Amino acid sequence: MTRKTAAMIVLVVVLFAVSGCWDYREVDKLPVIVGMAIDINEEGKHVVTAEMVDIAERGKESSTVKPRIISTEGDTLFDALRNAIVFEKGRIYMGHLEIVFLGKSVLERGLSEALDFLIRDMEPRMSIWLLASREDTAADLLKAKSVTGNVRTFEISQMIEAQKDLAKSFELSINDLMNLLQCPGCTPVIPSMELHNTEGIETQAMSGTAILKNHRLSGFIDREETKYFCLITDRVKGGILVIDSEPGNNKKGVALEILKNKSKIKPKLTDGKISIEVEIYTKVSIGEHGSAKHKYSEEIDIHRKQAEDLIRNNASALVKKMQTEFDADIFGFGHKIHMNYPDIWKKIENNWDEYFKTLEVTIKPTVEITESGLIQESMIKGE
After folding, report:
1. Which of 37, 111, 284, 336 could lock 49 by a disulfide, CB 3.0 to 4.6 Å apart?
2. In 3D, which of 235, 219, 169, 252 has the Cα closest to residue 326?
3. What span, in angstroms and rounded, lies between the C-alpha atoms of 214 and 218?
4. What is the pLDDT of residues 361-380, one digit of tens each?
5. How large is the average pLDDT for residues 21-45?
6. Is the per-residue pLDDT at 14 higher than 60?
7. d(CA 243, CA 140)
């Protein structure tokens, strides 16, 4: 055997000996956290409320995962989680964490403290969904009663995924938020959640959007406003537009289901002045009609114009609200200018907040009504 061959054998043996994971932990024997709410109390301590599941229970016959809620606190988020060892059977495992609720106290103080640990630590995934609490504390949301009786976090995950059929909220992961925080000319936003009373039972419900001006909570917009934010920023995959059944009758009797939507933000440079055009193409079908005089062939153009006016007016109102009340470019107009006109952006980026207030924004919707379901006209004839 040559010296070279012997050296290779020794190297292979050594590699096999040290190839195990240095920080391996048996997951089924660890406290596993699936949902977490972060608040800061009056003493400035980080309070973590966590939903835990026992993985070991899942292998037993006729058993279901039994969630439990714990609460722990510390000087920092990491300190609070580690302090759970006092009453848990070891360090909390965060590899299955799905949702983090951020309380108003955290958002008003700033995002950096909460995000730093979640990004720096190896266990949490960047796909974790973030939600802002509109309640007094984020813990209120995690402690609310589950509708199905199962794990609250899993139930809320399904709720977030279902928002594509409503368009009044959106998904936002840690990775998405990090991109927003590093985006020139962008004001970060986080979908928000509140408690909703259903037949005497308080449970969780999506409730619009939190605006984070300078990385701190500036305020909220409601579900309906969030729908037009999603339309402008090309986040819509479904939803309903409600218009008058007969023009001018003030009766919201026609429901148009969004089948497809595509939006594009286009900066325009005219005589040295920057403006924004938002093109919104929306394909819809008539899902419901409240008029006894309905005839699809005669009213198609009327309803198309009504829908375009609805989108134009509400989207323009939201843009105006952001310019006058929030001074917050949640749409990423500044980023589009930065990408398309970098020389212009260099001149205005340091004063973008003031520039944004007077930015001319034109909403240009195009609605296509493709069908009216199984009937072409009203089944009940009017007088």
Report:
1. 37
2. 219
3. 9
4. 999 999 999 876 645 565 55
5. 77
6. no
7. 36
